Fold this sequence. Notes:
The structure holds 2 protein chains of 2 kinds.
Chain A: H1 2-29, H2 39-43, E1 53-58, E2 65-70, E3 74-79, E4 101-102, E5 105-106, E6 116-120, E7 123-133, E8 138-143, E9 148-154, E10 166-167, E11 173-177, E12 199-207, E13 214-223, E14 226-232, E15 240-246, H3 255-258, E16 264-271, H4 272-280, E17 285-297, E18 302-314, E19 323-329, E20 332-337, E21 343-348, E22 354-358, H5 359-367, E23 371-375, E24 378-381, H6 383-386, E25 387-391, E26 398-403, E27 408-413, E28 418-423, E29 429-434, E30 439-443, E31 456-461, E32 477-483, E33 490-497, E34 504-508, H7 509-512, E35 538-542, E36 545-553, E37 556-558, E38 561-566, E39 570-577, E40 586-590, E41 598-600, E42 605-610, E43 616-621, E44 634-640, E45 649-651
Parallel strand pairs in A: 13-18, 36-39, 38-44
Antiparallel strand pairs in A: 1-2, 1-34, 2-3, 4-5, 6-7, 7-8, 8-9, 9-17, 10-11, 11-12, 12-13, 14-15, 15-16, 16-19, 17-18, 20-21, 21-22, 22-25, 23-24, 26-27, 27-28, 28-29, 30-31, 31-32, 32-33, 35-36, 36-37, 38-45, 39-42, 40-41, 40-43, 43-44
Chain B: H1 2-43, H2 77-90, H3 115-123, H4 125-131, H5 133-141, H6 154-166
Amino acid sequence: MKKTIQYLFSLVLIAGLVSCNNGDNQKKLRGQGGLATNAAERVYVAPGEHDEYYGFFSGGFSGQLGVYGLPSGRLLKVLPVFSQNPENGWGYTEETKPMLNTSFGFVPWDDSHHPDISQTDGVLDGRWIFINGNNTPRIARIGLETFKTEEIIEIPNSAGNHSSSFITENTEYVVAGTRFSIPVPQRDMSIKEYKGNFKGALTFISVDQETGRMAIKFQLMMPGFNYDLSHPGRDKSHGWFFFTTYNTEESHTLLEVNASQNDKDFIAAVNWKKIEEYVNNGGGKMTPTRYAHNVMDMDSHVATSTIIEEVLTVDPLDVPGAVFFLPTPKSPHGCDVDPTGEYIIGNGKLSADLTVHSFTKMLDAIENEKFDGEAYGIPILNFEDILAGVVKQPGLGPLHTEFDDKGNAYTTFFISSEVVKWKVGTWEVLDRQPVFYSVGHGMIPGGNSRKPFGKYFVAMNKITKDRYLPTGPELTHSAQLFDITGDKMELLLDFPTIGEPHYAAAIPAEIIKDKSKQFYRLSDNKHPHATLKSSDVRIERNGKEVHVYMTIIRSHFNPDNIEGIKVGDKVYFHVTNLEQDFDVPHGFATIGANNAEMLIMPGATETLVWEPKQVGVWPFYCTDFCSALHQEMQGYVRVSPADSNLPLSWSVGED
Amino acid sequence: MKHVMSILAAFAIFGVVSCGGKEEKKEEKVTLRTQTTEKVETTSSAVSDVKPSERVDMSTKGIGPIKSLTLDETINQEMAAKGKEVYNVNCLACHKPDRRFIGPAPKGILERRTPEWIMNMILNPEEMVQKDPLAKELLMEFNGSPMANQNLTEEEARQILEYFRTL
């Protein structure tokens, strides 16, 4: 009780300090960067020129991935991942619907959090980008040639897939840790019996180096804490993975207070190479479960969803020497490893200091069994023995740390709304800059890899308030770009972002831009309902199901007159875009469709279902302005009563 | 009074402008004719009223990668068959072999155009409709519907040309 009061009191104190701080900052520094310097020049990308970096910002509660150019902050594309996107038909077309299938059925939304770009030898290689869905646990893989979500795998035995999706330095694994621990297997039990009975799954998903195809290799069934964020070891610590935990109290209610009791929570250090070896030698237990694995076939552009009914689980106690706990003060959020792999930074979000663990000391403590007890049989290493250093009082509410290529670290502070630059090794604070307001994650291109590109730092802020013209109570989120090439960080630009970017990953544009696909070859189109020749244009009826095999090219549909459709039919429009040129998509929309439109890329085939409910003659048209004759790109469907005997007929260009 | 003056002035300007507009349009038409006439004079003796699609021009080679091409006496049937396949996938949606559709029919095209012009039209349509006088006129004859660049290889375009010889 006493502890609680003390704690509450200090929170009130902090809150008081912070609000004063903010007030001052707001007045003095609002225009910082824009007026006194040539900041505008440094973020200006002249018309027709390209940005230096691709920035991939998680779409947060939009469920998507935003692609921005840096340094301009220009939005280049919203890439649909976990949420339906009526703009192009993602999750509405027959081809893409299976991508959103789960063990819970069709789930058309998620909360996307942490993108991570594939690596080779710890360096960004730009093959794929991965991102997690937090709500209904999933990991997606997006190809960086097509900028299309090519695969989504559901994570069983998990809930709140937050400690994800982070990859090992050769993209051997993409890792997903559960934020909410749950009963495993799920069962009807009292919530009050949480403690000691719930489990926290840490999932290692292998990635095929040729195809990128994901498969769950094993799940490590950990004690029922909350697993918040994770980071792979790098270079010397490659082979290990680090996960922050909170709620080691294992409270099931009012976590705001009850999960903040312990002086220290843990960073779980997992020797995944050891577990991989154990599993490869037949270790682990195949356990019944259910999860969906959805794959987009890139030759046909048709997705399939497979339900898998078992997963290999590993009890950490069965692999001695593979899992240890590193005591870390006060509910750490970010868990970040510096580019050398030596330092593991725990961003204790309720701590006044930043705790840095040493990988070398950790190995030594393990070797010499310098333990300070155990939790559920997992050894807890002695805090003092593994401590590399402490960054003293750098700010309030540290969340996350990224690194540049000059041995500096940049930590975001949510409560005191600032970014603090400090020296790795001396733990000395070098600079601090306010952000507007309440920053979550920060990002330096390559800043979580072995090779950061230390030119810019982007703060992803949780609170926007007065930064832009007001748009009613609901505002966009805001990012801020800093130049970090000098001794002092310099604010250059604010730009709005979709959803709530929790994290971002950026890569020099030249690594991927020349590989970006311009169109799909018709000769490679393996869609089962493709219409590759005008002579194959046709309509087939199978009971109430009608399949229209249609082609489009500037600027007509073939067929564009259709008769013989009846009320109660289910009409599948399989539309093939015969264009073979860059940037000539066509759209397809028809009146009263209960789903969306669809965009068909050149050379691809997509399918939209239409269920006509009213007798009449109904139009369809192209939605994407394609040529001077776009407005002429239209057609009609005659819908007859359900009992009509009118035969199917179709034509184009006939009087 | 001042107001009336300014309104009048505005009308006057408006009048000038609209007249100007009309005149310009007329001029354009005239220019077009002149061009046609010139072309006809330098290339063949056909009448200027002949539609661009029916006009014979066996000297213009067009603009694009194909500078000079000599056809064999005999048609290479194997190449033509390949050309038909490529044509059916990439071109047929707009070009019916023997009747006008979105674009002109290729039947008999080798009696009206040089092989170079045909291949350049396939391989480089954007530049052709901007710069080649005949292609420009064709674009207007076919309602401004642009010839799509289907990104074919020279080999594929050559195969299509061989197929055209069989039509």
